[in-house]
Specification:
single chain, alpha/beta, Rossmann fold, 7 strands
Length: 260
């Protein structure tokens, strides 16, 4: 098992890609602290993980609130006897869809940056000192393919993912001397309820159908296959494992060639 004996915090653990990442990391031997805003879903997932023989703790916290993040990290350190090996930032939001930049509300734009950038920054800020203490750490953030290219009518979302890219590269430079790897995964369209909601909202706005919007996304991919949560989870395990020990400050696109 590639993560045997490792302790990991996963934010956004219960929804979409997060639950698949959680189950895959547990199957690879990691003990886990699961973080989400609502306690119900992550507690159910934690129970499922415990049934496999791994340790799991569910913590309800808003990763955009510094005091809640500080408390979450303190609980995780206590649960893990002071050692946090891995942080996976899987929390995120979609923001306005099919909205040109001149029609995006300032509050909508600010909220998206807060969730997708501050919500990544704060867990990194408060977990890194624990990693420095042990001279070891792996940080993996779920970014987005729109952080590698422009995205029509999704300027807020794209801006937030470009910010995650800059944060990842800068943190990797800051942390390198402490044997901490910092990387991001840049998914394209992933087969989750969020993708289905996105396709339906686009269809409603444009007067098309769900199937037409889904087919349009598929047509943009050189590999005519939509990315699955398992594709993302497998990449997270690789970047969280010692197999990637000399990879840092990088973005890994997993998008069927969408950003090629």
């Amino acid at each position: 098992m590639r993560l045997d004996g490792k302790n990991a915090i996963i934010t956004g653990a219960a929804q979409g890609m997060g639950s698949t990442i959680t189950e895959t990391m547990a199957s690879e031997g990691a003990d886990l602290v699961l973080v989400a805003r609502s306690p119900g879903p992550i507690e159910e997932l934690a129970e499922k993980i415990r049934a496999t023989g791994r340790r799991a703790l569910a913590i309800a916290a808003d990763t955009t609130d510094e005091e809640q993040v500080i408390a979450m990290v303190a609980k995780a350190k206590e649960f893990f006897d002071g050692r946090i090996d891995i942080l996976v930032n899987a929390m995120g939001a979609t923001g306005p869809i099919e909205t040109p930049v001149w029609e995006i509300g300032q509050q909508d734009f600010s909220d998206l940056l807060r969730k997708n950038v501050i919500g990544v920054f704060l867990p990194m800020k408060h977990v890194i000192p624990a990693m420095i203490d042990k001279h070891y750490g792996k940080i993996v953030t779920i970014g987005g393919g729109s952080g590698l290219r422009g995205y029509r009518y999704r300027a807020g979302y794209s801006a937030s993912k470009w910010s995650v890219r800059g944060l990842t590269r800068s943190a990797a430079i800051d942390c390198g001397e402490h044997n901490i790897n910092v990387n991001a995964i840049m998914p394209g369209i992933v087969e989750t309820p969020r993708m289905h909601k996105l396709c339906q909202e686009k269809a409603n706005t444009k007067g098309t159908t769900f199937d037409e919007e889904y087919a349009e996304y598929l047509a943009e991919m050189p590999i005519k296959r939509v990315t699955t949560p398992q594709h993302i989870a497998d990449a997270v395990v690789f970047l969280a494992s010692d197999a990637s020990e000399n990879i840092s400050g990088q973005e890994m696109p997993i998008d069927g060639g969408w950003t090629a």
